[in-house]
Amino acid sequence: MxxxxxxxxxxxxxxxxxxxxxxxxxxxxIFGFLAMTLGNLIExxxxxxxxxxxxxxxxxxxxxTMALNAFTRGIGIGASTLIxxxxxQSDQQRTSEIxxxxxxxxxxxxxxxxxxxxxxxxxxxxxxxASGDVLALSTQFSRIFLLGFPAMGLAMVSNGLxxxxxxxxxxxxxxxxxxxxxxxxxxVLIFGGFGITPxxxxxxxxxxxxxxxxxxxxxxxxxxxxxxxxxxxxxxxSSNCRQILHVGIPAAATNLxxxxxxxxxxxxxxxFGDEVIAGFGIASRIESVVGMVVIGISTSVVPLVGQxxxxxxxxxVNHSLRICYIGxxxxxxxxxxxxxxxxxxxVSGINEDPAVMTVAVAFLHIVPLSIxxxxxxxxxxxxxxxxxxxxxxxxxxxxxxxxVYLPLALIGRALFGYIGIFWATxxxxxxxxxxxxxxxxxxxTASTNKMRSAPV
Length: 456
Known about the structure:
Elements: H1 18-48, H2 52-88, H3 92-127, H4 132-165, H5 170-191, H6 201-226, H7 237-270, H8 274-298, H9 301-310, H10 314-348, H11 354-366, H12 371-386, H13 390-416, H14 418-453
Helix pairs in contact: 1-5, 1-8, 2-3, 2-4, 2-7, 2-8, 2-9, 3-4, 3-7, 4-5, 4-6, 5-6, 7-13, 8-10, 8-11, 8-12, 9-10, 9-12, 10-11, 10-12, 11-14, 12-13, 12-14, 13-14
């Protein structure tokens, strides 16, 4: 039975101005994502003081950390779509049940993954092209990082659940506390101080673990005390897990395409030397700061589309998507200009090695041109998941990697070196962004016509 003090809950997003809801949902997430990425960027500055080998080690870890984030976000999306539906129907007990069972599922999965990856991390990093001292540094960091992964995973899933529940602000607190801890505690652990022995790159790993535990503490506060969604029964647990994973597994697979692409980029670039890998690692972190704005906009989609679709408000669904697309394209154009003129300044603030700077600046002159279209694809992906139609999103992501990006990257590498690999990323984002938006619109139209023609 549920021990929530509330028996009903109004569906927040089926009324009121769509623009205001998008602004509220996305602004908090943008702030949280920016805090996270800026925290990572400042941490990268600290690591840059250690040397190029440490920067390369972090660059090899980046696809792995992104893959873990993508997997847990996908499982969370599976639960969030169910919560959005329950909230659209003002079913509080169902909401408590889904949230609790999702937490149990994610705890089991993240602990299991952390154990398995700790045993295999060296082999995984070596398969990405890491070797020698860089491989040793990256492996040590990964084994510390994985200690904090279950806490981070639960906190990350909580963000989606809280938004689907109808609280747009609390996720910002959860997302912000970890980067604050990493920025303040990181230099002490990395370089030493206050009686602490310098740990180098491992210190950054421990700062991540401590930040993740703090995030989990805030998420637990929301669950146990603020929303009071504890559900003291595992009855229907297997059924709920199947429903969560019905969307969660394809959503996780869709999310995993990006880190797989990143891993492929890292592998293709590894043959050009540590300086190229280090430059790519710096540039991709800088690009992720501005890219997080469109990711933040796209997170509005599951609660908005999920609640309105469940309530049969198709016009509000289409309007929500249109506003998100406009936001992504507008910011994408702005970000491209910022990166074009500011690339040298941003990169030199982290590392002034001329070879590293050349690579990083080239990346920032090319890939950010496609940020808006990458955002469109992310919005459409969340839209398919909100409709509990996850397979089109998965096929689109696979097509982007296999049919568009990989052939372009191989051709570009052969003809233009690492510059060709960067252009392949930009072109793939542009093509799939447009295709994704068109496909989602057709699915919504076909589903709406089918519902309207069905016998009452």
